[in-house]
Amino acid sequence: MGAPLPRGLPVTGPADVRRRLVACGATGGARFAARAATAWGEWPVPLGGSRAVWARAAGDAQRAGAGWAVGRDRVLWSGEGDRLRSLGATLARCGDPDLSALGRWLAAGGGAPAGGAAPGAPAPLKCGPYRLAFGHKTYVVGIVNRAIGSFSDGCQGLPSVARTVDAAWAAWRGGADIVDVGAESSAERDLGGIDPGVEMARLLPVLEALADLPALLSVDTRHGAVAAAALRIAPVLLNDVDALAERALGEVAAVHRAPLVLMDGGSSRDNGADLVDGIAAFLGEALCRAEAAGVAREQVVLDAGFGFGKSVAEDLQATRRLGELRRLGRPLLHAPSRKHAIGRVLGFPESIPERLPGTAAAVSVGIAAGADLVRVHDLPWMARVARATDAFVGRPSWSAITAV
Length: 404
Known about the structure:
With 404 residues, this protein is α/β, with parallel strands linked by helices. Helices cover 41% and strands 15% of the residues. Helix 2 crosses helix 3, helix 8 (224-231) packs parallel to helix 9 and helix 11 (312-320) crosses helix 12 (340-346).
């Protein structure tokens, strides 16, 4: 992650692919984003492998019409399935054993699905130049707060813009595919929330300062006015913990074709109903509200609301049974990081550092149960947990590579 490229290393391919790879840092002398959401596939370069061989392969990629960039220990590519298969056939005959292995995999169609959803997975989600294809890997959402009284920030005062921007870059360097910026803490929401004008004053300078961040940005907000102001600065994913209690937020998302996360807060559920059935019913209604506001169903992500309106036992059960929400046909976000239930399970309810192992377990179990995205602090550790869990559960981004 974040390794510099040698000067002059080519980034080749059609103009749109070049632009996306440049956006993720794959240019000579710039940072190389090994897990940037703009890249559709990746391949590890063995430490003993010849970088010159991999760099020359960029010419083959250009002739095949595929985007291609080489970092210190990763290759990123992007392109249509038939072009990737054609490139694979060329690379398979190159004579270099490592490059030939990648070529055989691409030629067999192993790399082609990376531009779209895996079989049985929800359709890809689009946001500006970004495209999230589900079923191949778990996307990591890094949490960055500019709020007062945030438990995860030690309940301190409002961080400066510079400190928040530094935290966003640190999240990206730590493996975040998406950086989620929030300006209202849970403590502030519990007291009735902050005024949208105050929220914008905290949030917008951070978004403006992150114009060069090579990752999809997410904005944690409940208000349409805040969402509209954010979208005037950059394409962002909107993360609404109130699941469109304010209809204006859905209307803004529809106008800008912005993706939208809707979360179950748990407060309106019938306690006599099955837990997951109740979550599914609430999220199904939220989906209907989104569609009524003009949001395409394909642009919605669902969050079961770990830590919101649930007991510890319910949080554990909802995590184990997360995959049952697949019935709604949308990608699932799992956000257990540092929550109260983690502290209770470990017996250290007031200590953030002590919650790290519990968060890791919750992230791993959630991915195994069916999460498509995980929202976390503690990067790069949680990004590594997600990557390792993908390998163990057999998600194609890694299982196909290790099968060569």
